[in-house]
Amino acid sequence: MTKLFRAFGVPLSTVILMFSSIWILGLIAAPQLIMIEQSLWRMERPEGAAEISVQIDGLYNQLDVMALDRSTAEAGTDATKRAADLAALDAKEAAINAEIAALEESESTPVKVYTLANFGQMGAAHLAIFAKTIAASLAVSAIALVVCYPIAYAVAKLETPRTAAVIMLALVIPYAINELLRIFAWQMILNQNGPANLLLGLVGLDPVPFLESGTGVFVAMVYAYILFMVFPLYNVLETLDGNQVEAARDLGASTWNIHRRVVIPHARPGIAVGCIMTFMLSAGSYAVPYIMTRGTAAPWFTQLIYNRFFEATNWNVGAAYALSLLAVCTVFIFGMMRLLKVSLKDIAK
Amino acid sequence: MKPAGMGSTLVLRLYMGLFFAYMFLPLGVMVAAGVNSYSPPSITVWQGFTFRWFAEFWADARMWSGLVNSLVIAVAVMALALPMGLSGALLLSQLGRRSAGIAYTVMVSPLLTPGIIIGISTVIFWRNLGATAGLFTAILAQSAFIASYAMLMFMARLQRQDHTLEEAALDLGATRARAFRRITLPFLKPTIVTAAVIAFLQSFENYNTTIFSIGGNHTLVTEIGARMRFGISPMINAIGILFILVTVICAVVWSLLRQRERKREAAA
Q: B116 touching A, CB under 8 A?
């Protein structure tokens, strides 16, 4: 910290510290911590609510008994005694009513209880959706890696710089076009009356309900996020020294061995980034399932989260669901870093 | 580089051709439906060329209010994320190894967090402070991760800075603040411009974080998303055509600028 003040002087350092803490604490750390906190409690009936309700029942019984006393008192002949009895009954009744009100208040006022129960709210159906979301996202990552590796390698190592620049431009354009538009294109293609079913019809097949079956979500997801694999791979492969490949070939290595022993080890950071990005975007995608299913197919986990917050308005369970998703992504990130032996510094480039 | 053989080169070319067809054909379908008079958007039923859907977009008040919101948010995000990202990068440059490592992890974490989680945690946080979700929470949620991009760009630039100029200025009696303003800041200027453009685009195009943090309000993109779900009017396709046009122009300009810069660097 003293180093900071020495480097920039007091006024400037103060500004730097101010903006940094707004960002780190106010926009990143505090919201995450509050979300974790929110997932760990819920409002419950207070402890001993059962005894309180027994007590309340007892008090109501007393009131019933007093109604009898009252009719006895009203039947009395002595006017002054009758007035005194009635006044005493009124006072007693008021006291009991006040006590009932107080007890009912404490019985029905929920208290904040810390619990892990919000995570347990995920029944078998939601757990299955959670598992499906993760499995499908892993598949998106794997498909993207297999499809993009040859492209990235070819552009980085086999093409002339001029051709490579043109190809890169052709990759940047679909990458930069808004995600929603790329998804919508597939909604049109896979629609009941869309070109995909038209083609199927031409070869004599029945139309397939792509959108209603959830297949459309997967197809559009691969399309929407596949380019997040190309660029990280290209960036690392561009730095690969062609002489290494050449040397391996001269030493008689097969194409397969060249890739396995030279190219892929070099590409580790790019593979890690590409897999992390495609997995995270898929698992956390709200746009793709929202547009591709039109509410007809089984939901994606992100839609469950959205519903907890904005439709069922159970924020505690919603926070627990969100946290579960975040936990899976975090595990995936660290798993990839471990597996490919790369650090966070290699990843964020 | 020696070719691996004619056969495999041909296979690779074919593969790449297929890949680009896969990338561009769907966009072509969308563009075609945007100028087809048939509604709902379709290319299987062709009813003749029209610009009608552009006119419909022009007359749509909700799209325009969404556009205004998008611009307000994007400008606010630029104003917030740039100073935060720059401060973060400057702070990192002066921290010790250990604390820099921790601070760096926190600063890049928004890039590795699903956007919806950034959005929803911001809303939860501000609801606890009594604020309801709206443009304000959308700005903060977007800034949280857009500042990370800015920070990485500034960090890369700062690592290439030659400190001798700064030291000379200090030797000549300049204050720290003055040396920063006159030397470091001009050095960072190209990055500030790029970071501003990227922050603007990231904010303008964002869907996942925004839809979870904007509450009852809407931006152009969230409104487009809502309309797309039911795919009722080819107006969406018309908007798509406009987006594609802008994107293509930006991409071409960007790549020309990059090429020129590379040539200049090669010449220097």
A: yes
